[in-house]
Amino acid sequence: MRQNEILACIEELAPKALAAPWDNSGLQIAAERDEIKHIAVTLDPCPESVRKALSIGADFIFTHHPLLLSPKYLNNLEDNYYKVASLLLKNDIPLYSAHTSLDSMPAAFWLADEFNLINRKILEPTGIIDTVQYGIGVCGELRTPLPAEDFLAKLCRTIPHSRPFFNIGKLPQTIKNIAICGGSGSSLLEEAQNFGADCLITGDTKYHTALDVSQQNTDFAIIEVGHHSLEEEMMRRFTLLLQEKLPKVRISFISSKDPFIQIME
């Protein structure tokens, strides 16, 4: 399949128009090759993942996180950015990243789908396409409210994880409204509370945000499940979606490791 057809398909699934102004979604490293037979999908464009992709014969790499978010000199031979750029350029492999452009699409709401949330509202709108509002983060209702203990048990079963989750604040005894934001979503705390969420599930939380929530005299909690946990699973599922859209191209998922390693129980 031609490279421009691949790019068109990806940008239909994750439109660049929905990316945040500060973001760097899009083609990170260009390649002259025209025919693409094998796409590797992975969370981060790190040397280990790129080498794995090359070892299985991938000729196109798709990641969630961009190679660079700001300009940088590639003048250090030991720098990971240089290593990735060098590997890709030497092998004529294009690298494409869909960061906030993918965060704004339904693929990022896989956890909301697992909980079968209804009456959904976008936390941070990023754009309208064909009269449909898209954005980052979602808040919705459980069809049947759950006791907090049952809700937490289902959450732990649903999200693949290698380290503990953290509860910040006071979780209500019964959970009905859930806000979810992959990656670092503590900036959407106010929006989640304004929509009546009982909790905000996200990957990262700033300390002072956590401190403020812990001191609130309300039944509301942030549940921090790890940046990697939410987005690794999103990319695994996106691999399946991409395979449906591109049946003539081989699509492989390259798993990655959470950089946060638990060192004590």
UniProtKB/TrEMBL annotation:
Superkingdom classification of source: Bacteria
Keyword Cell wall biogenesis/degradation: no
Similarity annotation: Belongs to the GTP cyclohydrolase I type 2/NIF3 family.
Signal sequence residues: none
UniProt name for this protein: Nif3-like dinuclear metal center hexameric protein
PANTHER family xrefs: GTP CYCLOHYDROLASE 1 TYPE 2 HOMOLOG, NGG1 INTERACTING FACTOR 3
Keywords linked to the UniProt accession: Metal-binding
Organism this protein belongs to: Taurinivorans muris
Pfam families: DUF34_NIF3
